[in-house]
Structures are given as structure tokens and as C-alpha cells.
Amino acid sequence: MNLLIFGPQGSGKGTQADLLAEKYNLAHIETGQIFREIGRENSDLGRKIKDLNDHKEMIPDEVTVEVLKEKMEIISPEVGIILDSAPRTLGQVAPVEKMLQELSRSIDKAIYITLPYEESIARITKRYACTVCYRHFVLGKHIEGREDPCPTCGGPVMQRGDDTPDGVAKRLKTFYEVTVPVIEKYRERGLLIEVDGNKSVEEVFSEIVSGLNL
């Protein structure tokens, strides 16, 4: 099984992708995390990615496809995949699908977890990350205050630069203007499963699984 999963910031798509990966033995390929890791590398690509991330700019389509291909090539063909937030632009659709085809894969379903704009802002502005182990935490749930240490390793936690209200607003604008047209393409093809991200994690997961089993 090869899946795509989409959703605005805060929709919980990463959590759902992890749950689906566990249930169906899929490799979860999260493009945002991949580029954050590359951005920490002391390499030409790492410095380029870091600069783009610092300026809140999107990664060029050709770079995204090439990086995804490198990740995909080391995954056994016996293991399915779940691509998290890719393809993100209309320009990525054809090359991503061509790349998958060359690896003898095809897209079975695309999952879209919806969430109201205001709820996205509310959720993401409470998100913090450890600067040492890079685990993510929610203010008021996993940590009580902004100065609290990481519950996992004790390292300092901080908010990502683009998790501020202004940063989230810019990312949401990009999502609705650039990525939603991609999602609509999969709806037109009859491949889309759309679920309400305002429900509990368990309810969202159950609805996705039901859609996959139809």
C-alpha cells in the first residue's frame, strides 16, 4: 500500500501517518522532517535548505523530488510507504508520480485531514521542540511552561521560528493556495479520503482505516 497524507498545520497528519505506518507496515516519509535534518548538515545542500527555511521559502520542486527519490530508493519494495505532505505543489505531482512509477509504485489513496484555520493557529502556536533530541511537545500538555526542560532528555525547549502566529499564518496561506489544488487533483481521480481533524485521534484514525478498507 502506498499512501499520500495531507493536512494544514496542526491537523495531526504526522500522528496519523505514524499510526498508519504501524498498522500497515509502511515507511513514513515526512518531507518537513527530512529537510530540517538536511538543514542541520554542513553541506552545500544543507546550507541552501537552512537559508530557505530561515526565510520561510518553499523548497524548489526539483530538490524535493530528488531528495524523496534518494529516500525511496533505500526502502524495500516489499514495504509500502506513506508520503507526508508530498507532492506539495502542482509542479511536483507529475515528477513525484513518475519517480514512484520508476520504483514500481503507484498511489493507492490520498488522505486529507481538514482543520479550521483558527484551530490550526491555536494548536501550532502551542508547539515546542527540544533543541537536543528534537522531540516535539505541546505547551500545557507535555510541558507546563516555556522554560521547562525537555521531558525526554532534559535539554532546553524552544518554539520553532515558523510556529509563531505570523509564521503559521504564512504557512497556512501556502497550504491553501499551493497544496489544496494538489489535493483536489486526487479528489477528481477518486483517490481522496477526507476526514475531520477536529475529532479525537482515535476517531480520525478509525475513519481513515474505514476509508482504506472500502
Structure in words:
By secondary structure, this protein is of the alpha/beta class. It has a single domain (2-116, 179-213), classed as Rossmann fold. It contains 8 helices and 8 strands; from the N terminus they run βαβαααβαβαβββαβα. Helix 2 (31-39) crosses helix 3 (44-54), helix 4 packs parallel to helix 5 (90-102) and helix 6 crosses helix 7 (165-188).
| Proper CATH architecture | 3-Layer(aba) Sandwich
End-to-end separation: 14 Å
In order across it, which strands form the biggest sheet?
Answer: 2-3-1-4-8
Largest sheet: 5 strands, parallel
CATH topology-level fold name: Rossmann fold
Kindly provide the name of the CATH class.
Alpha Beta
Poorly predicted runs of 5 or more residues: none
Topology at a glance:
Blueprint lengths: L1 E5 L6 H12 L1 E5 H9 L4 H11 L6 H13 L6 E5 L5 H13 L6 E6 L2 H8 L2 E4 L5 E3 L18 E2 L6 H24 L3 E5 L4 H13 L1
Parallel strand pairs: 1-3, 1-4, 2-3, 4-8
Antiparallel strand pairs: 5-6, 5-7
Structural descriptors:
214 residues; alpha/beta; Rossmann fold; five-stranded parallel beta sheet; three-stranded antiparallel beta sheet; 8 strands
Short description:
With 214 residues, the chain is of the alpha/beta class. It contains 8 helices and 8 strands, in the order E-H-E-H-H-H-E-H-E-H-E-E-E-H-E-H. A hairpin with a 5-residue loop joins strand 5 and strand 6.
